[in-house]
Specification:
The complex is a heterodimer of chains A (230) and B (375). Chain A is an alpha/beta fold and 230 residues long. In chain A, 40% of the residues lie in helices and 21% in strands. Chain A folds into 2 domains: 119 residues, 3-Layer(aba) Sandwich (Rossmann fold), CATH 3.40.50.2300; 99 residues, Arc Repressor Mutant, subunit A (Orthogonal Bundle), CATH 1.10.10.10. In chain A, the strands form 3 sheets. Chain A has a 5-stranded parallel β-sheet with strand order 2-1-3-4-5, sandwiched between helices. A 4-stranded antiparallel β-sheet of chain A has the order 6-7-8-9, with helices on one face. In chain A, strands 10-12-11 form a 3-stranded antiparallel β-sheet. In chain A, α2 runs parallel beside α3. Chain B is of the alpha+beta class. Chain B folds into 3 domains: 128 residues, no CATH class; 60 residues, Signal transduction histidine kinase, dimerisation/phosphotransfer (DHp) domain (Helix Hairpins, Orthogonal Bundle); 160 residues, Heat Shock Protein 90 (2-Layer Sandwich), CATH 3.30.565. Chain B contains 8 helices and 7 strands. In chain B, the strands form 2 sheets. Chain B has a 5-stranded mixed β-sheet with strand order 2-4-5-7-6, with helices on one face. In chain B, α1 packs antiparallel against α2, α4 packs antiparallel against α5 and α5 packs across α8. The longest helix of chain B has 70 residues. The two termini of chain B are 40 Å apart. In chain B, 28% of the residues are buried. Classes of the chains: A alpha/beta (230), B alpha+beta (375). At the A-B interface, α1 of A face α4 and α5 of B.
Chain lengths: 230, 375
């Protein structure tokens, strides 16, 4: 998509920075590096990278704080790379505006896929009213959805949920975020609503509901709408 | 954590027997004083004084001594103060009511105070538990960081190296292999430290002492630490003829390794690190010092605690290294002290009981004339 995208790595561990640098550069990205939250913010402001890989355990401040400050003015994708694997940390980071969350140790292939996906979803932000993904076609203007060119019958809520996923393809959306967006802030605890509608949507759009290819469960955290195969 | 729990009530610290004795004694004493003044004060005033005594006892002691005091004081009041005196009979209805009221108030007083204390105790326990949990989480996070980071480095590097067809330059491959090596050493160090810690915790460390050459030990450690010590200036100040000393090689090697590794890790490039040893009559003193940033004075007492990390620590670590150092030195019946050098930097001073001079040294006699650098 964007082979010369510039990626900023914010991590205090020299070894991780070195390995990420080699990984990213050998895959055609250019890299920038920062070892502290402060340095990371400065470089973000100066270079405006296309994507940021952010560690949470920074020496000068928690990565959560860095992310919050960054998100006040930086709109491009931020992927968290952290050893912290509690649901609490993941949900906090996503709620603070992270696009994705990868737990260390991570597989290189997985990281590259997430980076591609985040860069892609950041790309067509000025999208037309039609989102096309994996044989699905979501027309935001006419509020219709086609699967393999066949019109799907969706309820208003099912449509709203799918459109929200489509607009945020590739990104992990937390349960709280989805509930607030679709049902309103009084319903953020009503996880069962979400479960029911996700099940209904999967029945309509997935080939096999037991092995979903579109709506992926991020256990304990939320869901991710897969942005196409490669 | 040892000093975290301070029982606010005497009750938990004074033995049951003493609680009974003290409460009976105080009631008797107060009653005796009141009795001396009974010509001037009425039975009702005495009742209040006794109730006050009871309340004070209830604040500090357990429920049973307090209940006993309540009953005892009621009997004393009835026998010695309530008319007719010197028997348990009660003269009139008014006094009967007074006595039964006294009884009830005394009991209610005792029970209520006890209940309040129970509630406080539960609240305190909850607070403790929350504190322990928080400590445990911090610890777990730091440990998982220390273990997962090198694992992430190894997986990240091998994923790249194994990729076919390879996009890596020779130079990059070399760099990745170096990272794998560094990460493996780091993991090994953590595992070593954890195993040593559990050895210490089990309490079964028996130093296997034998005659060893300190100089040789230090050289071998410096060799192992060549990489982390890169761009630092280690200096060994141990005189050539330094006598052999009796110690557990493995334990002392770990002690010096951890101290020197820390010095390499926490000092800036170009720092000077010095290892010196001095022998005294029955004491071996080893000093490891550097001219780095030293330790914050207010944290110096805590750095040997298990899992303790400096508050503004910017470099990863498990918080085990120095506690193992201390444990192993103590296993040799030695001591370790940390001070900041007046001109800046940290100084660790280890003193071990060691028999250096002629009477203990196993060397043939002509070697014993080698100088001891005693200053």
């Amino acid at each position: 998509m964007n082979p010369t995208a510039e990626i900023l790595v914010i991590d205090d561990e020299t070894s991780i920075r070195k390995i990420l640098e080699i990984t990213l550069q050998s895959n055609g990205y250019t890299t920038l590096q920062a070892a502290t939250g402060r340095e990371g913010l400065q470089m973000t402001a100066v270079h405006s990278p296309d994507l940021i890989l952010l560690d949470l355990g920074l020496p000068d401040e928690s990565g959560h704080a860095t992310l919050k400050k960054m998100r006040e003015w930086f709109g491009k994708p931020v992927i968290i790379l952290s050893v912290l694997n509690s649901e609490e940390d993941i949900v906090t980071a996503l709620d603070n505006g992270a696009n994705d969350y990868l737990i260390k140790p991570f597989r290189t292939g997985e990281l590259l896929a997430r980076i591609r996906s985040a860069l892609r979803s950041a790309g067509p932000e000025d999208d037309g009213p039609i989102i096309r993904l994996n044989g699905l076609e979501i027309d935001l203007a006419t509020r219709t959805v086609k699967k393999d060119n066949e019109l799907l019958k969706l309820t208003a809520t099912q449509y709203a949920l799918l459109a929200l996923f489509g607009k945020n393809a590739g990104k992990v959306l937390t349960h709280q975020y989805l509930l607030r967006e679709i049902w309103g802030s009084d319903f953020v605890d009503q996880l069962q609503y979400l479960r029911v509608f996700i099940a209904q949507l999967r029945k309509k759009i997935e080939k096999d509901v037991n092995y979903p290819e579109h709506i992926i469960t991020e256990s304990g955290v939320g869901y991710r709408f897969l942005a196409g195969s490669n | 954590m040892q000093d975290a729990y301070v029982p606010p009530f005497l009750g938990s610290r004074i033995s049951k027997r003493w609680q009974y004795l003290l409460s009976i004694q105080s009631v008797c004493l107060v009653s005796a004083v009141c009795f001396l003044f009974s010509a001037y004060i009425g039975a009702e005033v005495v009742a209040f004084v006794l109730l006050l005594t009871l309340s004070l006892i209830a604040m500090f002691f357990d429920i049973l001594p307090v209940l006993l005091t309540a009953v005892l004081s009621a009997l004393i009041w009835d026998y010695f103060f309530l008319l007719p005196r010197y028997n348990f009979r009660v003269g009139n209805t008014e006094d009967e009511i007074l006595l039964s009221m006294y009884f009830v108030i005394a009991l209610v007083n005792a029970v209520l105070t006890f209940k309040i204390r129970q509630i406080e105790k539960i609240a305190r326990q909850k607070e403790e538990k929350a504190k322990t949990l928080k400590l445990y989480n911090t610890l777990l996070n730091s440990l998982s960081h220390e273990f997962r980071t090198p694992i992430a480095a190894i997986i990240g590097a091998t994923d790249n190296l194994l990729e076919e067809p390879s996009r890596l330059s020779r130079e990059d491959s070399k760099k990745l292999l170096t990272e794998i090596s560094v990460a493996s050493m780091r993991l090994n160090r953590h595992v070593e430290n954890l195993l040593n810690m559990s050895r210490l915790e089990s309490g079964f460390i028996q130093p296997k002492k034998d005659w060893h050459d300190i100089h040789e030990m230090v050289s071998s450690i410096l060799h192992q630490l060549e990489e982390p010590l890169f761009l630092r200036k280690p200096e060994v100040a141990i005189s050539d003829g330094f006598p052999l000393v009796r110690l557990d090689y493995g334990l002392m090697e770990q002690v010096l390794y951890n101290l020197l590794f820390n010095a390499a890790l926490y000092t800036p490039e170009g720092s000077w690190i010095r290892i010196s040893a001095e022998g005294f009559d029955e004491l071996l003193v080893i000093i490891v010092e550097d001219d780095g940033p030293g330790f914050p004075e207010e944290e110096i007492d805590r750095v040997f605690e298990k899992f303790y990390r400096l508050k503004d620590s910017r470099i990863g670590g498990s918080g085990l290294g120095l506690s193992i150092v201390k444990g192993f030195v103590e296993a040799h019946n030695g001591t370790i002290a940390l001070t900041n050098r007046p001109s800046g930097g940290a100084r660790f001073l280890i003193s071990l009981p060691a028999c250096l001079p002629a009477r203990c040294n196993p060397l043939p006699s002509e070697n014993l004339t080698l100088q001891l650098s005693v200053s």
